[in-house]
Fold:
Amino acid sequence: MGLRDLVYGAYERRLASSLQRSGAPVPRHVGVILDGNRRWARSVGASSHEGHQRGADKIVDLLQWCDEAGVEVVTLWLLSTDNLARPEAELATLLRIIENVVIDLARPENRWTLNVVGALDLLPADTSRTLKEAAEGTGGRPGVLVNVAICYGGRREIADAVRSMLQAHAAAGTSLEEVAELLDVEHIAEHLYTRGQPDPDLVIRTSGEQRLGGFLLWQSAHSEFYFCDAYWPDFRHVDFLRALRAYAARQRRFGA
Structure:
């Protein structure tokens, strides 16, 4: 272990201890945009496949850190609807990695309840089935609830929520005029992919990009944002603790 590792280790322990002693508020729901796999790969002379795999391997660490911190819900953005336009070979490789990630997270020895969200109908049928079957057996586990956002886009989610709401009212015999009179924010929220869950308190994006890119558009109206320069495969526990520290220092106004 080099001097730099020793220094970072000491800093990490001091930061963790400081957060615990201060009784700093912990976000109930953390959303994470896991960005920078391909740029990390280019920076180290690796293939995009290696970058995606290294990013996948980091997910277990993050969930363990969230368990330790007392976070209740984590939403991971693994694949956007825009990502479907990537070259076929890269997309096929990425989908296989995502399938393996979900299968591994669903193993009985892990603590997490999985909820796969997104426009799964746009995925290959085999991939969609694999993801759903892996997540089905994880209900009621003691660790964090993990929303695995795959083929996800915020605009698509809102459109799906409105469509679902209209279909429910149509099935009940409600006219469009009656729906228009009844419609409010809560009616739409009840049909989101994350219905019944707290909105994200903190959204983290890695790789230095400072935009949401369509992530949890509806739910993040009052979220705090933390942008980290590290590419996702290089995201460390100390980076996570810094995000928690930044969150704890914010004075949340919820639009007031």
